[in-house]
Structures are given as structure tokens and as C-alpha cells.
Amino acid sequence: MSDTIPYSTSAPAVPARYEKAKYEDVQENIRGMFEKMRETRKGMYIYGGAGTGKTHTAYALYQNTFDKIGVYRRFWNVTELLRDIRQDMDRDRYEKRRTEDDLMEFRGVLFLDDFGAEKMTDWVLETFYLIINKRYENMLPTIFTSNFTIKELAERIGDRITSRLVETCDIVPMEGADRRLSINLPPHQA
Fold first, then answer.
1. Which helix (H) or strand (E) holds 105?
2. What is the DSSP track for 30-41?
3. pLDDT surpasses 80 at 45
4. Which CATH number is associated with domain 21-183?
């Protein structure tokens, strides 16, 4: 990844909810994989139930990507990414963003949050395949978060994409109760 291409000189803003996501709070095994990413060229597939801290972990890594492994990064919630690509189809050719082309050419670490949550259509599967395959071919790490196990993901998106994802990622389960549900509940209801 020594030939990384900066997308921009300033990274997109981190949502307010995740601004305080701390690298030190990330599980030690995940930090270890992350810090070796430049050498291994492997991404991560972080999966678990709702509220287990997957997105929080991803933003903590995202905020430290350049400092810890020296490469540029991009972060997309997958549903927002697909909406952006769809909207691009209706734009005048001079106003097109060409997000999927940019992602296929991006040489840094790509974060795809809530992978697999969207409605699967032929267009969605083709879009995923194009992005993931290009990154697979160029050995570029991608960090995915998902609510789905690898088996469940394969049932949703098929073996072709899942196989590439498994080969290029460390698989990381996140367990525990939904933290969001227990924040404001009285102790006897949590």
C-alpha cells in the first residue's frame, strides 16, 4: 500500500455519535490485526448483533488509520453509499460523482459499515462485486461491519463475493448484549 492515493487532504467528518470513539477502547486482538494491516494487506470482517460496538470500533480505527498504519481511509455506511451511487445515475454527466469508480480506484483502507443490511437486488450485488473484486485483485484492505455471520452473509449475497471477503479479511466476532437498549432502561428491565 505504499502507492496510496489520497482522496482528499482532509478526511470527512466523523459523526457526532462517534467523535469520542477511542482507539484504546478497541479490543486488543482487533488493534493487533489493524496495526499489521499494512504488512498483511488483510482487512477485517467485524460481525455481531445490534449494539455490540461494531460501528464504534470501526470509527475508532478510522480515526487512527493514518497515525497507526500510515495510509488514507474512507468510511461509508453501505446504505448511504448505495443511495449516493443511485442518485449519481440521474445526475448530468458533468455533475456525476462516480463514487463506485472512485472506490474501485482508492488505494487506502475502505470502511464499509452495516454491510449486508440493504435489500439485495441484482444491481446491489453487481455493485458490491465490482468494488470488492477490484479491492481483492489489488490486495487492498477493507474493514466491514455487519450483523451477519459469514454463513448468513453468503446466503444473502452469494459465495462469489463472500469467498473474496473471507480470503482478504480477518473474521472478528463481537459478542454481547445490545448496549443501546441497556443505556436508559431501569436496572430491572435491562
1. helix 99-105
2. HHHHHHTHHHH-
3. yes
4. 3.40.50.300
